[in-house]
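Hey, can you fold this one?
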Amino acid sequence: MRPGWILLAVLLAAACGTPEPESDSAPAAEAREPAPDFELPDLAGSLVELAAFRGRTVVLDFWATWCPPCVFQVPGLNRLRAAHADAKDLVVIGISVDIDGVEVVGPWVHEYGVEYTIVMGDEKLAAKFGAIGFPALVVISPDGTIDSRHSGVIEYDDLEEMVAEAATRRPD
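Sure. Predicted structure:
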């Protein structure tokens, strides 16, 4: 790899506040924390409530239009959503932390071909989920608990593995 590309990759990661990718698998089921509930508007203004997806695995992607690495997460999340569309066992939700609102987020979503639900959140909500830097993923098990977290861009196979693990934790 050319030195210029390495420097660019480091600068892009630093721009979004993520020093390096890392995963955090939650401890045993009895010690896992419930996912904080939210009710947030999507790009059309309809409310999306996390509790409505209980019984399904949920992937939350905290991102921002001003975060260059966030663009690289979109194809993998689109692929993940499509791979589970028939089974209806998975929900992918992108949570924008942009303060400029739908006027900025809507065109970005269109430009980069996002195929999953986008809602308008903020950095306070991201912090409640333990998301540090962007992009940041949080995988919620069907039982409503946080199963794992990942900071930075994630490879598709690693994402599928996180989802498969979370799916084993069914509600009582």
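Confidence is low (pLDDT under 50) at residues 1-15, 18-23, 25-30. Let me know if you want another pass with a different chain boundary.
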